[in-house]
Amino acid sequence: MGKRILIIDDEELIVQSLVSLLNSQGYTVKIAKSGKEALKIIQDNNFDLIICDVRMPEMDGIETITKIRSYLKKAKKKNIPEVIITGYADVDKYEKAMELKVIDYLYKPFHSEDLLKVIRKVIK
Known about the structure:
Layout: E1 4-8, H1 12-24, E2 28-32, H2 35-44, E3 49-53, H3 61-74, E4 82-86, H4 91-99, E5 104-107, H5 112-122
Parallel strand pairs: 1-2, 1-3, 3-4, 4-5
């Protein structure tokens, strides 16, 4: 089985593009359309990487990652590296992501190869 990646994004076109790209590279992909859905998925699955959008309804990407990390710690599960993706230049969100020490912060639209380089660096 390929390495597992969780995509958390509410934009259908982005999700479809990422799934197609990652599947073509042999990764197994699961999708969450919201932070709340991601928290439920994390409870029953193990992942090697999370790719999370910043702007989402109800709970943004920063809050989602914070809550996922809290759950993993309480459940005594290993941390999952995260990559943040966003279509908006938001200095506050960028700074918060850097404080969380996420693996990378990519601005949409990004080149597929740039994302794959980041993924390959994390998932060996």
